[in-house]
Amino acid sequence: MSTTDDVPIIDVRNLIVGYGDNVVLKNVSFVVDKGGIFAVLGGSGCGKSTLLKHLIGLYRPFSGDVLIRGKSIVRSAQSDKDAMMRSFGVTYQNGALFGALTLLENVLLPLEEFSSLHHEERVLKAKEKLRLVELDGFESYYPAELSGGMRKRAGLARAMALEPDLLFFDEPSAGLDPITSAELDKLILRLKKDTGATFVIVTHELDSIFAIADRCIMLDKQTRGIVADGNPRELLEKSDNPWVKSFLSRNNLRYCN
Fold first, then answer.
1. What pLDDT score was predicted for residue 5?
2. Please, which residues have CB within 8 angstroms of residue 43's CB and are 6 or more apart in sequence?
3. For the chain, what is the radius of gyration of the CA atoms?
4. Is 24 within 8 Å of 47 (Cβ atoms)?
5. How far apart are the C-alpha atoms of 109 and 104, rounded to whole Å?
6. Tens digits of per-residue pLDDT, 172-217?
7. What is the DSSP string of 30-61?
8. What's the average model confidence in pLDDT over 155-181?
9. What is the pTM of this model?
10. What are phi and psi of 43, to 5 degrees?
11. Of these four, 155, 171, 231, 244, which has the most CB atoms within 10 Å of its CB?
C-alpha cells in the first residue's frame, strides 16, 4: 500500500504541449522525487520554459497530465488548482519584482494576500525570508537600487514567503557574472539543506548544473522530447548519445543554433 511519502512530488505523464498548431514537446514523461535539485536543460528553443509553464499550471497541455503530490494540476477544478499553485513558489528569470515597492513590500505581497497572520507576524516572516537569502538590511531598498544577483535573491525570498516545499526557478543564473552565479548556486544548496524543499531549475548554464543538480533531463528541439535523464556528471561520463556528451562537454553547437 502506497503512502503520501511514496508519491513523487511531480509526475509528468505523456505530456504534449505547444502553441496553436505547433507542437513543442511530445510524449514527455518523468517524475521528480522529493528533496532534491532537479534540472531541466537544453539549448534555446527546445521547450524548457514552455515545459515549466505547464508544470506550474499556467498553460494547459494538448494532452497528457501533470500531477503535483499525486493530484492533477491539469484536470483539477479551478479552486483546487489555485490552492495547488499557492503551494509552490516560482522565481522568474528577471525576478519579477514590483519596482515601486521595497524589497520588504515585495516579499510581503503573498503573505498579505494568502496568509491569516497578523500584520506584525507577516512583517517578521518577510524579514526572515530576506535574511535567508542574505538580504537582511536591504528591506527598504527598491529593486532598481540593487544588483542583478540581489534582485534574483529577492525574487527567491518572495517565492519562499509562504514556505512551500516545492520551488521552481526559470534561468536563475541568466545575466549574472560567474562569481555572482556561483554565489547563487551556493545559496540554493544551503536552502535545500536548511528547508528540505524540492527545487526544479530550468537552465542552460552547465556550471550551475554540475554544481547543484542531483538529476537532470535534457530536452532536444529536433526530437521534441527528452534525450537524457540522470545525474549530469554520470551522463557526461557514460551517455552513449553523442549529442548529450557534446552538450555537456560544451561542444554544443547543435543546441545553440
1. 63
2. 204, 221, 247, 252, 254, 255, 256, 257
3. 18
4. yes
5. 9
6. 887 788 898 899 999 999 999 999 999 999 988 888 899 999 999 9
7. EEE-TTSEEEEE-STTSSHHHHHHHHTTSS--
8. 89
9. 0.89
10. -80, 180
11. 155
The amino acid at residue 119 is H
Q: Is 171 left (phi over 0), alpha (psi -120 to 50) or beta?
A: left
Contact 154, 143 (CB under 8 A): yes
What is the C-alpha to C-alpha distance for residues 108 and 188, in angstroms, rounded to an integer?
Answer: 21
How far apart are the C-alpha atoms of 96 and 246, rounded to whole Å? 33
Q: What values do phi and psi take at 249, rounded to 5?
A: -100, 10
Strand 71-72 vs strand 63-68: parallel, antiparallel, or unpaired?
A: antiparallel
The 3-state DSSP class for residue 27 equals strand
Pairing type for strands 71-72 and 166-170 reads: unpaired
Asked if pLDDT for residue 94 goes beyond 70, the answer is no
Residue 106 DSSP code: H
Q: Using an 8 Å Cβ cutoff, are 40 and 232 in contact?
A: no
Tens of pLDDT, residue by residue over 230-245, are 999 999 999 988 888 8
DSSP state letters, 204-251: --HHHHHHH-SEEEEEETTTTEEEEEE-HHHHHHH---HHHHHHHTT-
Strands 10-19 and 225-230, sheet pairing: unpaired
Query: How long is the chain?
Result: 257
**Nearest-5° angle of CA 152, CA 154, CA 157?**
115
Instruction: Provide DSSP, 138-174.
Output: -TT--GGGS-HHHHHHHHHHHHTTT--SEEEEESTTT
